Amino acid sequence: MLVTTIGFSKKSLRSFATALQQHNVDRVIDTRLQNTSQLAGFAKKEDLSYVLELLNIDYLHELSLAPTEELLKAIKQKEIPWAEFEKIFVDLLAERKVEAKLDDWLGDKVPCFLCSEEKPHHCHRKLVVEYLKEFDNRIEIVHL
């Protein structure tokens, strides 16, 4: 069961759309807390949902997969190290019981979990899919 992730930073709309199409993604799950910032460019909620509609890709915004405002601020301002962010965020996912929606998010779709970070190494989308994999070991994770 293929599950992908992607960040839109430093990507053109063409490379973003091509990556989704090459991996047969048919559902994008937006894991951002804020998805309406002008800085998001083509990934601003209304623009992104329109582009995905043209590509025949479903769009979901899932706030349950986003860090809290306080946690996001703490990591961005380097008030906490990555290891601490990771533990707090994974605990938050467990507290929210996000795994209960796993079947809804995956179903018969190839989902792609979206956030802004260019690379997944220090990004919460990586933590989300790794957490979900604990509940379904058939998940194969590919970072686009």
From TrEMBL:
Organism domain of life: Bacteria
InterPro entries, per database record: DUF488 (IPR007438)
Cross-referenced PANTHER family: BLR5642 PROTEIN
Protein name: DUF488 domain-containing protein
Species per Swiss-Prot/TrEMBL record: Brevibacillus choshinensis
Lineage of origin: Bacteria, Bacillati, Bacillota, Bacilli, Bacillales
